[in-house]
Write a structure and sequence with these properties.
With about 450 residues, the protein is an alpha/beta fold. The protein is built from 15 helices and 15 strands. The chain is globular.
């Protein structure tokens, strides 16, 4: 291999001044850099590698399918893997009233969902309905449509002139409740905010509402109060607005159920999936569409969804998804995720007692967020953004052999620091204990340096 410094002169990284460790291999929950350092991948990349690294069965599934046929375009042909995976997905959701449209990733799934909602209303003779309501703390993807829906100031502001302007509502951010309610006084104002937005904008203009049942990158682990999603569905039904569940990060077992919305006995008209569906072994996404929407398009004059991407339904990628779901089911990994989450979350919450900069620890299953504040004993004041506390935490963890996923700007779009913890589903209790131990030390070091 050439010298790393020579080859790096041509690469375009996201952060142009950050030094990126060179990862050369992975196995199970571990990744290894070019110097042989062993790192626990407690982020699964970005909540992606649910089965862990170097799973031989998944790799073989790709190879076998590629030896049969590596590519056919879905505008002209079908293929065996998409037939099998669509049935598997519907069975995992446990509702026979869905149909599956394949994409190459999460942003594509969200784009497809937006266009599905638009075409659904257009075919029903409602050409005015084009707006999609979203939440103010959210991340739905990097393409222009998905970014238009995203409620994350830092990711949006440089591109705002070329984004669509869509209405937003308050999220169920219980730690910083925008309605100043407590758990005891909560009356689901955050859900009722959707009806306010629909009425204010005019329901005749609204096509859909998009939300993350459990929030991912924008403020990881935020989960709604009981009754929230059910109430959202009622409001959507009342105004004939489609409900889009963005489960790109929270779906495919990450929260201890196949869909995060299943914790709340509620379902969306359209569901966006990606990330764990292929465990990162191939680019893959899917959109699950209820009969109500599917049948309208099928019976329309064009009887077609006017949309598509070159690599949607790629046979080898979908074959990987087939194998991933088989493994999840055979090894009861979703149940394991639930058990590990119940074991681990109390340990992580105990860090609040030890460290004053730990403000909130929340999540479900193995989708957990830790939010950092100046002094949780005295309130919830976020750190000055210039301190970039999240990166300090990440770097201290990495020194100790732990990879976590940092993020920020969940407080009024200009401040806030957090990390996402989303280890592979195969993780064991002793490995969770090790992660907690490293986190404890890393947080303690950063906390002391900030004094």
């Amino acid at each position: 291999m050439q010298d790393k410094n020579l080859t790096e002169q041509y690469i375009f990284y996201r952060d142009l001044k950050r030094d990126y460790p060179l990862i050369v291999k992975g196995n199970g929950i571990y990744i290894y850099n070019d110097k042989g350092k062993k790192i626990i991948d407690a982020a699964s990349g970005a909540a992606v590698v649910c089965l862990g690294h170097n799973n031989k069965r998944v790799i073989e599934a790709w190879v076998k399918q590629s030896q049969k046929i590596s590519f056919v375009h879905m505008s002209a042909f079908s293929n065996e893997p998409i037939l099998e995976l669509s049935e598997q997905l519907v069975n995992m959701v446990g509702d026979k009233h869905y149909h599956v449209y394949f994409t190459s990733g999460g942003s594509e799934s969200v784009e497809a969902a937006m266009k599905l909602a638009r075409q659904y209303h257009l075919e029903k003779g409602r050409p005015e309905r084009h707006m999609v309501i979203a939440r103010s703390i959210s991340y739905h993807g990097s393409t222009l449509g998905a970014l238009s829906l995203t409620g994350h100031h830092y990711r949006r502001y440089k591109f705002s002139p070329i984004l669509f302007s869509f209405p937003r509502i308050s999220p169920p951010y219980c730690y910083r409740c925008p309605f100043n309610q407590t758990k005891k006084t909560c009356n689901l104002d955050c859900a009722e905010d959707l009806e306010r937005a629909i009425v204010t904008e005019g329901e005749e203009l609204i096509s859909a509402f998009i939300f993350e049942p459990v929030v991912g990158a924008a403020a990881p682990g935020i989960s709604p109060p009981v009754g929230y999603i059910k109430r959202i569905r009622e409001i959507c039904e009342k105004h004939d607005v489609l409900m889009i569940g963005d489960e790109v990060m929270s779906g495919v077992g990450r929260t201890g159920k196949f869909l995060a919305s299943q914790h709340y006995q509620a379902r969306s008209h359209i569901i966006c999936l990606s990330k764990g569906i292929s465990s990162g072994y191939a680019p893959l996404g899917a959109v699950l569409v209820e009969d109500e929407v599917y049948d309208v398009l099928k019976s329309s004059g064009t009887h077609a969804f006017v949309h598509g991407h070159t690599f949607g339904g790629h046979p080898s990628s979908v074959a990987v998804g087939v194998e991933v779901l088989k493994i999840l089911k055979e090894k009861n990994l979703i149940e394991h995720v639930s058990d590990m989450g119940k074991y681990w979350l109390p340990q992580l919450k105990a860090l609040k007692k030890k460290h004053k900069i730990v403000g909130s620890v929340r999540g479900k299953g193995l989708l957990i967020g830790i939010e950092f504040v100046e002094n949780s004993r005295k309130g919830k004041k976020p750190f000055e953004s210039s301190l970039v506390v999240r990166m300090k935490i990440k770097d201290e963890c990495l020194k100790r052999g732990l990879n976590v996923y940092p993020g920020g700007y969940s407080v009024k779009g200009t401040a806030g620091d957090h990390i996402l913890l989303a280890p592979p589903y195969i993780i064991k209790k002793k490995e969770l204990d090790k992660i907690t131990e490293i986190l404890d030390a890393a947080i303690g070091t950063v906390e002391k340096a900030l004094e």
